[in-house]
Amino acid sequence: PPNRTPQTDPFTLSAWVLSQQHLTAPNAKGRLTVLLNAITVGCKFVASAVRKAGLAGNDVLGMAGSSNVQGEDQKKLDLVANEVFKNVLARTGQCAVLVTEEEEEPIFIRPEQRGEYCVVFDPLDGSSNIDCGVSIGTIFGIYKVAPGSEGSLADVLRPGRDMVAAGYCMYGSMTYLMLSTGRGVSGFTLDPSLGEFVATHRDLVMPPRGSIYSINEGNAAMWDAATSAYVAEKKRPPGGGKPYSLRYVGSMVADVHRTLLYGGVFLYPADAKNTKGKLRLLYEGYPMAYLIEQAGGRAIDERCERLLLREPEDIHDRAPVYLGSCEDVDDIERHYKEQG
Ligand code: AHG
Ligand code: MN
Ligand code: MN
Ligand code: MN
């Protein structure tokens, strides 16, 4: 066997991106590589801030005293992460438009710094988990502007299938970065001693069926009939089969990460209170749907259509999200069809 053990072959994320680009676009000038590299720098910065949070000289815990366009109270770390990603992205010279959860309007990069990519991102996902040390993350998706465009709203108001790359970083017991540039999903783990993301999950394929469902069960009284029937079936399988386990972190990154690795489903349906669901399409729904599909799973909306095909009307649009192992998502679809 070739002498390529992880111990002696630290395959870094940058090397991986370059190798992918070689496969997909031999004439590429490495611009996407530069952009992805900047994102990893932002992720390392946030990972480092999270590791030291609450200690002397690192005042990133608690509320910022402001709120975002969705009416959520912002945490200090939401704003720190937002600034970090805006700065590292703008400086690459590869971006035309940025969309972030924390800002109402898209950010149009000035001509001297402008490039041809648009990055939509959730700088800090799982804000409610920051102060208690539970896993949080960063989610991002990348579009290329239309030919000749200098960067416009239309370049980011596009369905997720148009993305050229998507990924997330999870600040958990390990710092993971999962990434797709449209040819499968690969996963990297931050080696703190090297300061590098090293490939640990090559060509990730998720299980066709899992044994976990993940949903905020506190909303059960407000669910629609299909969601209620589906969850009831997972708890009390007809014929007395083994029930599914419930796991719900409350950070989409962590709940999706577990779903990618172990299989099962993650759902955030519309309900009587969140009539369009809670998760934001551009920087939560699409990137995760992209990764799940690239890993062989399925991601749909309440009409049982591919989430990646849904058209956004606003950069902060929300949508119901059902994603995970193919057979599990098929079960959800069956319930929607049965309920009419
Ligand atoms: P964010 O912290 O970026 O605002 O995202 C929170 C999202 C997502 O991470 C998670 O899946 C969901 O909110 C949890 O919502 P509930 O607290 O309503 O369960
Ligand atoms: Mn938020
Ligand atoms: Mn989020
Ligand atoms: Mn967020």
From TrEMBL:
EC numbers for this chain: 3.1.3.11
Gene Ontology cellular-component annotations: cytosol
Primary enzyme class: hydrolase
A GO biological-process term: sucrose biosynthetic process
Pfam families in the cross-refs: FBPase, FBPase_C
Family that this chain belongs to: Belongs to the FBPase class 1 family.
HAMAP family named in the record: FBPase_class1 (MF_01855)
Protein name (database record): fructose-bisphosphatase
Organism: Auxenochlorella protothecoides
Classification of source organism: Eukaryota, Viridiplantae, Chlorophyta, core chlorophytes, Trebouxiophyceae
